[in-house]
Structures are given as C-alpha cells and as structure tokens.
C-alpha cells in the first residue's frame, strides 16, 4: 500500500471513529472498531517516540559537530605554538572540522610528532595532552551521535509500519462499510479517504 498523507489519514480516522461511536451495535463496527483504535494507539505512541528520538539525535549531531570544531581549533593552536617556537617538521596542513577522517589522521600525526619530542621541545607534553583530550572527547561524542541516529532510524521504521497497519485497518473498515451500505450511500462517501492510497472500490 502506498504511503498516505498523514493529515488525510487522520481525517479518515476521525470520520471512522465518529461512525463507530454512532453505531456501536453493528457487528462489523464491533469487529473493526477495536482494531482501528489499537492501530491508532500504536501509531501515536511510535510517533511520539520518533519525535523524541529525532530531537535527541539532532542534539547529539550538533554536540558532535562542536566537538570536532574543538579538535580542529586545538590542532590549529598547536600549529601556531610550534611555529612561534621555531619548531620544524611538524604537520602544518590546515583542516576544517567537517573532514573528520582526515582530521583524525592529521591529529594522530601531530601527536606522534609531539610524543617523539616531549623531552626536547618546549611545551610538547602539554600540547600532546591537550590534543589527546579533545580527540578523545570528540570520539565519544561521535559514538553517541551514531547511537542516537540508529535509535531514531529504528523507531522511524516502527512508526512507518504502524502507519501502514492503521491505513490497512481503515481500508478494511471502509470496505466493510460499503458492503453494508452501498458505494453510493452518503454516509459511506462522507468518510474521507487519502487519494494517495489504493481505492477500495473493487470490494463490491
């Protein structure tokens, strides 16, 4: 079944629930009403959780971006300090925070340079520790960002399945209603159906 416009589907749900409330004793209503409600509650729950996971992921994404900015700034500050003390042979390439893989490689190269010169180069130990700390924090945040994204994708998939289940139950209800009333009945035609979904005109 194609994806439905959620607003259209909710309008259809509203119409169906109104009919069910008005005709609680009809056999097909007693059969479909709890199924429609159950699928709606499942979708609503998944939607709320999906919204929360999305917000959490975007926050983690922003934190991750900021951490890599700190790494790039620390590397640039280290390069400037080495230049001030007339050090030679250190990695001097300038990189932005957005190229994380290349930035990690360059920082590791700088860390190796500083480690080899801890005794001979003024401030090498302090610069090495500063870079290590920033890199470690960025990697932790990167892991958290990845985990948050995986969680969001998981619940987004659950939400899509729940929406499909809701649409299927509404589709079945309309089919049963048309068999009960006929496809030209005003009550049946008044129940709005998303145009993006398959028509159920073939059930009669």
Account of the protein in words:
The chain has 204 residues and is mainly α. It has a domain of 138 residues. It is 76% helix and 0% strand. The chain is rod-shaped. It starts with 5 loop residues before the first helix and ends in a 14-residue tail after the last helix. The model has no long low-confidence stretch (mean pLDDT 89).
Q: Portion of residues in helices?
A: over 70%
- Percent range for β-strand residues: under 5%
Work out the helix count: 5
What is the radius of gyration computed over CA atoms, rounded to a whole number of angstroms?
A: 30 Å
**What is the CA-CA span between the terminal residues?**
19 Å
Structural class: mainly alpha
Name the shape in a single word.
rod-shaped
Sketch the topology as an H/E string, one letter per element.
HHHHH
Give the SSE map.
Elements: H1 6-22, H2 27-84, H3 100-116, H4 124-181, H5 186-190
Helix pairs in contact: 1-2, 1-4, 2-3, 2-4, 3-4
List keywords for this structure.
5 helices; mainly alpha; 204 residues
């Amino acid at each position: 079944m194609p994806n439905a416009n959620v607003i259209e589907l909710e309008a259809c749900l509203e119409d169906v629930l109104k009919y069910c409330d008005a005709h609680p004793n009809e056999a097909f209503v007693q059969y479909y009403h709890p199924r429609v409600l159950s699928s709606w509650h499942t979708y609503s729950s998944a939607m709320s959780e999906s919204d929360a996971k999305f917000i959490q992921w975007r926050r983690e994404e922003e934190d991750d971006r900021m951490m890599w900015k700190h790494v790039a700034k620390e590397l640039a500050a280290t390069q400037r300090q080495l230049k001030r003390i007339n050090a030679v042979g250190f990695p001097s390439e300038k990189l932005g925070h957005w190229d994380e893989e290349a930035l990690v490689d360059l920082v590791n190269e700088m860390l190796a340079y500083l480690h080899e010169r801890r005794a001979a180069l003024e401030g090498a130990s302090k610069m090495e520790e500063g870079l290590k700390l920033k890199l470690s924090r960025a990697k932790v945040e990167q892991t958290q960002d990845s985990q948050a994204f995986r969680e969001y994708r998981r619940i987004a998939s659950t939400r899509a399945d729940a929406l499909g289940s809701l649409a299927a139950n509404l589709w079945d209800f309309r089919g049963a209603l048309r068999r009960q009333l006929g496809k030209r009945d005003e009550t049946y035609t008044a129940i709005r159906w998303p145009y993006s979904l398959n028509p159920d005109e073939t059930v009669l």
